[in-house]
Write a structure and sequence with these properties.
The protein is of the alpha/beta class and about 400 residues long. Helices cover about 45% and strands about 10% of the residues. The chain has helices at about 55-75, 85-95, 100-110, 130-145, 155-160, 165-175, 185-190, 200-210, 225-245, 260-265, 275-290, 315-330, 330-345, 355-370, 375-385, and strands at about 30, 35, 55, 115-120, 150-155, 175-185, 215-220, 250, 295-300, 310. It binds iron/sulfur cluster.
């Protein structure tokens, strides 16, 4: 048998991967690859132990067609304003073949969410050949011409060598936003975290995406440098982003579940984790050093201590840093109550502490679980693991 011959496998049905960015909560998820081709980042638990593979394009097309058939059927059962009754939904469910259930669920969730966006999975979809991506995008647009946004995760390392012309064609075919896990702009931090990319490649890839007319969303990971590299992490990350000027900068705080490689270093004392106080100082230093760019900053991840840090640069910079100053200026006895309140979902912003009812609830939680100003950091670590 010819060893180079491509193995053609039969279609195993509609597939979805495990994650998507928080901003893609209402998107249809279309799986083009399985898992992560790199899979070595020391902080990342998502695909560890799972092998990477690329799905056949005709299988992806079959997934899209399955969703399309269900969407068509749902449109027929809905009224003029695309509203579908519970009775019609139950009737539709009863008519579904068992092998079609996953595609139907994807279709109905998407249908009731307004069918505005699609997210291409899994961790690094741009690794497939540009012409294959264009074929998938073209088919998506043909089936769902009303879709406003098609987005994907991609690694800078994968984007950097793509020809400008190919990336432009991918953008023209419909991919209008790419999410990159920048995590840090510091080469020291990137190396320590085994991100497999340098600051320079991050910058090149970011500029390339912007040059192709595709929106860029860069994820930054506060805390990734630990105590030792906290300052350089903040400064170098700001410097990299100042050179890229992405449309979005999104914060996603480091957490260290037992399942990630970094946990071993943490346990052995080789990695000293920043507590919330240091993390707030790091984020402040980072935002203060963002300069000459027009990015929108979002803090839309459940792991983040400050959900309310949001705004467009340069206009909202002062407002964002003021939130951090307010927290840092608090007495420790009050700071720890905010930390706990935020982590258990009672507070979403600092001003929630003025609400006596919410404050009493937080104090009760502290009494019940035994959280004190002295043990708050380790208790917070445990709470955060629940959200990973
Ligand atoms: S590239 Fe992304 S998905 Fe892959 S291991 Fe790193 S963080 Fe995880």
């Amino acid at each position: 048998m010819n060893a180079n011959k491509k193995v053609v496998k039969s279609y195993q049905g509609f597939e979805q991967g495990p994650i998507r960015p928080p901003s893609e909560a209402y998107s249809l998820l279309i799986r083009v690859t399985r898992n992560c081709p790199w899979n070595r980042c020391t902080f990342c638990p998502v695909y560890k132990g799972s092998r990477f593979s690329i799905r056949q394009v005709d299988h992806v097309i079959q997934d899209i067609d399955s969703v399309y058939r269900h969407v068509e059927a749902l449109q027929q059962k809905s009224d003029e304003s695309d509203h579908i009754s519970q009775t019609e939904i139950k009737k539709a469910v009863s008519e579904i073949q068992p092998g079609e259930m996953q595609a139907f669920h994807a279709a109905i969730n998407w249908f009731v969410s307004g069918m505005k966006s699609v997210f291409i999975q899994d961790a690094n979809s741009l690794i497939i050949k540009p012409y294959e991506m264009i074929k998938i995008l073209t088919h998506l647009k043909r089936r769902f011409p009303w879709v406003e946004r098609i987005t994907s995760y991609a690694r800078s390392h994968t984007i950097a060598p793509i020809k400008d012309k190919d990336l432009k064609e991918i953008g023209d075919a419909g991919l209008n936003r790419i999410h990159i896990g920048l995590e840090s702009g510091s080469d020291q931090v990137l190396k320590m975290a085994k991100k497999g990319v340098s600051k320079e490649t991050h910058i090149n890839a970011g500029l390339k995406v912007r040059g192709a007319g595709i929106e860029l969303s860069e994820y930054v990971m506060p805390g990734l440098g630990g105590k030792k590299l906290s300052e350089i992490h903040a400064l170098e990350t700001a410097d990299a982003l100042n050179q890229i000027n992405p449309e979005f900068i999104r914060l996603r705080t480091l957490a260290i579940p037992n399942s990630v490689p970094l946990f071993e270093d943490y346990e052995a004392g080789r990695f000293e984790k920043c507590n919330d106080l240091l993390m707030a100082k790091e984020i402040l230093l980072f935002i203060e050093n963002l300069d000459g760019i027009t990015s929108v900053i979002k803090s839309d991840h459940i792991l983040n201590l400050f959900e309310e840090i949001e705004g467009k640069l340069p206009h909202d910079k002062e407002h964002m840093t003021e939130i951090l100053h307010r927290f840092l200026d608090m007495k420790h006895e009050r700071q720890y109550l905010y930390q706990v309140g935020r982590r258990v979902g009672i507070f979403s912003r600092l001003s929630d502490m003025e609400n006596p009812y919410r404050m009493a609830k937080v104090e009760k939680v502290c009494r019940q679980i035994g959280i004190t100003p002295e043990n708050v950091d380790e208790m917070i670590d445990e709470l955060m693991k629940r959200f990973i």
